[in-house]
Amino acid sequence: MQLRRQLRIAFICLFVVLAISVAGYRLLGGSSVSFLDAIYMAIITLSSVGYTEIIDTAHNPMLRAFNIFVIVFGVMIMLYVFSVVTAFLVEGEITNIFWRRKMLKRISELKDHYIVCGLGDTGRHAIEEFARINAPYVVIDNNEDQIKRIVNHESGLYCEMLYVVGDATDADILEGLGVDRAKGLISTLASDKENLIITVLARQKNPELRIVARCIDQKFAERLMKAGADSTVSPNQIGGMRIASEVLRPHVVNFLDLMLKDKSRTLRIEEIEIAENSTWVGKRVADLHLRGSYNLLTLALKDAYHDGKQHGFWVNPPENVTCHPGLVLIVLGDTKDVQSARQHANQRAHHASA
């Protein structure tokens, strides 16, 4: 950004000197000097190509003095322009332009991805989780320097991060991020009002999108939900609960921290939803062999039916529960094992519908 600003300044200075030169040659050269002659004289003087003067300065001391001014300042400006252009090329700005176009093309090809609006402390931790479990995501933030610091992080976790520098409250930019094709959106801007605007715009573009918004002031939580957010998260509330949990149940907190911070594996509590045409439909949970085949521990079921009654979450469910479309299995295990189970279910669903 700094180099681009210098390049603009250099060309502005060059244009100003060129304009002054043309005006000076016409005014001091007399009525016989045409506009084309003045431009030609200015260009050969500034470029120092050494062509013959087409405007005679030998019998016009004032014009000759002006020509000296043009030569001195013109050479200085040209040297500055050449140095900035060289730096622009050497430091890869041209390459960055093509790279950005390539990245925008990759973003346009995304589907069922996640959009993270805002790359502050909250957004940074969110994309860390996406990167660790290899979930497709794209980031938007108006601070390019902050984005580059994260991209160039020594861990290399974000080296392939797709991002756009811009205002997340701009509807056109959100559309360019593929909000109509996205699976989820996280709005983590520092302002609750901006998060509210993003929620409204995103919900208008994609009624099926899952939207989670950061909320500092609790009075905005209800407004965000009415605007279309599926859930709101208050960092202050989460922080208070974490502090209390550290005192009340330290071993549980340590176990959860181990899941999130262990770099050797990505142990997570995940969910697997039973599709409409999945061959898992009609089978008991025990028949899925989640523990033996995928090394997954079933913690709960959502919307499970038992004895003709519908339940919300069924914690530690019995294994004789029959799977049905829309049933969600809450499991504990490595994300690779969870992905394997999902793919297996989807492949079976595909074969079943074929």
The CATH level-2 architecture of the largest domain is identified as: 3-Layer(aba) Sandwich
What general form does the structure show?
A: elongated
Q: Which fold name corresponds to the CATH topology of the largest domain?
A: Rossmann fold
> Can you identify the CATH superfamily of the largest domain?
NAD(P)-binding Rossmann-like Domain
Largest sheet: 6 strands, parallel
Residue windows where pLDDT falls under 50 for at least 5 positions: 349-354
Q: Give the helices and strands as they follow along the chain.
A: HHHHEHEHEHEHEHEHHEHEEEEEH
* Structural domains: how many: 3
Biggest sheet, spatial arrangement of strands: 3-2-1-4-5-6
Helix content estimate: 40-55%
Text of the CATH class of the largest domain:
Alpha Beta
SS elements, strand count: 12
Number of helices: 13
In what range is the share of β-strand residues? 5-15%
- From the N-terminal CA to the C-terminal CA, the straight-line distance is 53 Å
Mean pLDDT: 85
Instruction: Give the C-alpha Rg.
Output: 32 Å
Structural class determined from secondary elements: alpha/beta
